[in-house]
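Hello,

Following up on my earlier ticket. Below are the two sequence lines again, exactly as submitted.
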Amino acid sequence: MSFDPQSLRYNEDGLIPAIAQDRASGEVLMMAWMNAESVARSLETGRVTYWSRSRQAFWVKGESSGHSQILVDFRYDCDRDCVLVVVDQTGPACHTNRRSCFYTAVRAGEVVELMAPEQS
Amino acid sequence: MSFDPQSLRYNEDGLIPAIAQDRASGEVLMMAWMNAESVARSLETGRVTYWSRSRQAFWVKGESSGHSQILVDFRYDCDRDCVLVVVDQTGPACHTNRRSCFYTAVRAGEVVELMAPEQS
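Thanks for your patience. The regenerated structure is below:
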């Protein structure tokens, strides 16, 4: 069955959450949002393309930073309302220069930082 | 620094997306939603507790199915608007009886099913 980006379920703003996972490490790198057109562009170009809610514009990950995400596998969930992109990540995924955006943990009620920014 | 669940950023419905990742396999299992109280309950009880948008009720994962998620690590992202829970998953995470909700991929424009329901 061929895939139609419109067949996914988008929220009232036309957006769907997209989780990026690193192919090599399995690490969850970030979560951002896509609209139907950014789903289509990601699949067509092989470069993960989000929709920036703050800029209201397409966001080709790494276009300005060089920290691009090459699409390895595009998946969606049972409810069709969440996307998982498996990626080859170049450099850190997070704008803080950390490998993953999920660098903060709560352990025994305390906030713990799990990783430091990478040196560039 | 001690953690306050209210310090996370919730959407206009008071919800934050929560990604569950299996500790052992690294697999992304599902994405569901939490409110501040379900964040607090997950941390207090060590059992991952979502907020069911359809039922408008707390949803202790596995409470009815037995497919519970024991909280191993609670993390949040740089923007404080997404949660990652690392879990020990008992049985399949998906209501379709599959290990993960992300069992559908798009490859070369075609929809591909990656895993079958587990036998119970």
